[in-house]
Each structure stands twice: as C-alpha cells, then as structure tokens.
Amino acid sequence: MAGSAVTGRLDQLTSWNADWRGLRVAVLGLSVTGFSVADTLAELGAEVLVVTQDVGEDYARLLPVIGAKLWTGPLDEAPDELVAFRPEVVVASPGFAPHHPVIAWTRAQGIALWGDIELAWRVRDKVLRPDGTPADWLLITGTNGKTTTTQLTAAMLVAGGLRAAPVGNIGVPVLDAVRDPAGFDALVIELSSHQLWYLSQQTGPEPLSPYASVCLNLAEDHLQWHGSFAAYRDAKAVVYENTRVACVYNKADAATRVMVEEADVIEGCRAIGFDLGVPGPSDLGVVDGILADRAFLEDRRTRALELTTLDALAARGLAAPHIVANVLAAAALARSLDVAPAAIAAALSEFRLDAHRIEVVATVGGVTWVDDSKATNPHAAASSLAAFPGAVWVVGGQLKGVDISDLVAARGPGVSAAIVIGVDREPIVAAFQRHAPDVPLFEVDDAQTEDVMAQVVALAAGIVRDPGVVLLAPAAASFDQFDSYADRGHRFAGAVRDRICRDENELRDSDTRNDTRADGGGAGDDDDPAADPQGADG
Questions:
Q1: What is the DSSP letter of 238?
Q2: Exposed e or buried b for every residue in 376-388, given b needs 16+ CB within 10 A?
Q3: Backbone dihedral region of 194: left (phi > 0), alpha (psi from -120 to 50 degrees) or beta?
Q4: What is the pTM of this model?
Q5: Backbone dihedral region of 275: left (phi > 0), alpha (psi from -120 to 50 degrees) or beta?
Q6: CB burial of residue 111 (10 Å; 0-12, 13-18, 19+)
Q7: Are the CB atoms for 370 and 361 separated by under 8 Å?
Q8: pLDDT (tens digit, 9 = 90+) per residue, 300-347?
Q9: H-helix or E-strand containing 419?
Q10: What angle do CA 247, 16, 170 make, to 5 degrees?
C-alpha cells in the first residue's frame, strides 16, 4: 500500500468502531504494556507481529491464543522478519529509546510510529458514559511525585462519586482500562517522559486532548534515554498540549510555568498554580496551616475554600513538603472536575503512601529508619533530605548520566554522615570531598546484593545520634545491585529489622545473665543471718 494511502487509512482509525481489520502492526516489546497493545489490536482484527528480544513463558503461551505472531531475537538492527512483514504501523513499548536501531529504522522508512497511549486515545470510545461520551483523561507527569499524585487524584475522584482509575506508567495499562466493560467517568493517567516522547510523534487528525494536565516538577533524569536535558524537558512539556480545562503547574518550579505558557491548548483552558505559599486567585496553596483553593470558586478574589490542614496530613504521614505539594496538585485536578472539598478531605483521611516513599521502617532507641528507595534521582532525594535534616544519608546506585554535584552542594553539608553504595560511588565521593568535606563519609563496596544493606545498617547504627534519622534516599537507580527500587527498599527494611531483633536478643541475653548472677551470688534474705532466727542463734 502506497504511503499516502496508508496515511489516509490511519487518519480514519480514530474510534474503536473504525475498520482496523487487516492492518499490519508490529508491536515492539512484550511486557505488560506490549501485551496490552497486542491484545487490543488482535481484538480489533489487525494483523499483529510482536517483536521482542526475549519473552516470558506466560506471554509466549498467550500470543497464539489471541492470534498474534511472535518473533524473538537480537534487536541491534531491524530483523528480516520485521522488514518482510511490511508494517503499516509500529507500536513501541516505552522502553525503546529514540536512538534504538529498530526505532531509527521505523522512522527512516516513514512508517507510522505510535506508543500505547496514542492507540488508547484512538480507541477510547469502546465503553461510553451514560451521556454517550468517553471518559475524561487527566494526565500527570513530572520528574518526581507522579505515582503518588496519580493515586491521590484517583482517590479524590472516587470519594467525589466518580468512577475513576489510576492507570498508565503506574502499572495498569491504559488500554486495559479503556476496554474495561464497567467503564469510567475519568482515567487518571501517569505518563513517563518515554510515553510522552511517543505522543510527540502523533500525526493523526485527532491528537490527544486531556481534560486537565499537570507537570509536577522538572529536574535532570533519564538523560541516557533522551540524549539531553532539553529533549527530556520537551517530552515532559507534551503533557499540556491540547488541554481543554485546566493546565496545573508548580509555582515553585518556573520550568512548568513556561511549559504552560508555550503549550497550544483549547480556548478557555485555565492555568492553575500550586505551591506551599499563600495562594493567589487561580491558585492552590497553604494559609496558616490550611490547604486552600482559590481557583475553583466564583469569588476567588476574596475567598478561599478549605481542603484540609497540615495537622490532618501529618496524622496520615503526608506532611513532608513534597508530599503536600503532591496533595495540592491532585486537589487541583480533582477540583477541575467539581469534586467537593469535603470529598477531598475524606479521601486524604484514608490515604496511605505506597511502600518505599518516605516510609518509616522503625523507630527504636531514639533512631528513626526511613525507606525512601523511590527517590531514584537527585530531585527526589533533595525533597527527602529537606524533610529529614541532619539525617545519616544512604546514597548511591546507578546515576543514569545525571550529575549529583548540585544535590551534594545543596544538601550534603546538612547531613550528619553519608554512606555511599552502588556502582557510581566515585562521583558521589568526589562531590562530597568538593562540597561537603567535613561530613563523615563511608563507602560500602560489597558487590553482593544480599550483603549491601546489612553493611549499611551496621555502619549507620554506629554513626547515628540519638535522636536521629537514617535515611535511604539513593538519588540513583537500583539496577546495578538490586532488581528494582522496591527490592532495594525491602532489603534495607529487612536489614533494619534484623538489626533491631539482634539487638533485642542480645539485650535479653544480657538481662538473663545478670539475673542469673543475682540469683547465685547475691545476699538475699535467706543469706542474711538477721533474717534467719536459727542462723542468729548459731
């Protein structure tokens, strides 16, 4: 089929009810997202070839069942099987970077390149609301805080009586939600910079147009994938394109405001700011310990609506400054859909952070052990360190090409000590020597995964003051030594608990020995001649 004819057909594929039959689609990658793409396309009647370097047993068994073909092998170039398939569309999983050889081949051939989000947008009308329209989409991105804000927003919408689900990069493919027969009023979609880059490749007649959107913050991350910070920033900015009602931005992060100013949005869309300061009209913020909305009410120039209080958040472990910012961003998205302040407060009263997000593992003997393994970049670690000044900082891992010097210069002098782990220890140690030379510095160079955290905890226990905090906020990825940030956090927490248990056992044994000595060698009443008349007589 000639290129113009292919383009013409793709322009017509903007509905679940369009004719997708026989469309040749290559799906790159086969994890949760890749399978959801293949399954959706097979259900639509497309001819599907899945191309992946390796495949799990379950997926390999399921693909023939759904009617998709599978090719596995090295992907250092476009495989002959892919070339012979002559795909009209390539749908890539988010892990495939723009410079990947198969992506480069796809673009050079002029083949349409989609991500899972574009496909989901095109078929979003499979299940409609009672009014005959698809679910509204709320988009959330940012260097840090995406998952927490996505969960918060969905919880607020549900508390407000809406059928809503947190999906996307959070772990549930958007395509699975779009095909859910129960249907939704709103989808709260966490988007990675990788997914947003693929959205930037859209060429169809109906580009994604979210109801509301937010970029929470921007800092260096994923530079190896994008190639530069400018490219990473440009990908993040895509989140605001074609927004219909509310572009929510972080007043404390000027880069997000610039993104909104530069975005091409639907006429009438409002810019809504949030930060931890006193809110102006069209903002959400904090006044005398009260989280306040001055954006979504008629007389916003003279009044504000109370959403919750810092004390109430503290009772739920949500009072760290970066978490409060996430709460405000989520509240802005929820209020854009007219969720009542009381519903927002109710949702917050039951909300719990996921594991490994400033999670208190234990507090024993005046020492608090905190697992923030999800702090996988310097920006996230800076927020964590701000919440726990003077902590013993456990830092390091795989830096992903990011320079950690600015973080060490800003936060390093304020920690009581640092324990450096991971494959990229050298630049971290050098940054401390340059910017915080007086901070005690310790390295754990053991390459054995099972031993790393035991050594970290043993070192920290000997360093930390009472009262004090030991904070795992690595500012780096985990894959050099661990399966994931969750694995890293689990191992840290396990090592802490093992240490506490061992200390308690040693204390118990010591008490038992003391009791034994007291029973055998002390002068009790029976040994006192004055207490025994016969002894006195003798």
A1: G
A2: bbbbbbbbbbebb
A3: alpha
A4: 0.86
A5: beta
A6: middle
A7: yes
A8: 989 999 999 999 999 999 999 999 999 999 999 999 999 999 999 999
A9: strand 417-420
A10: 45
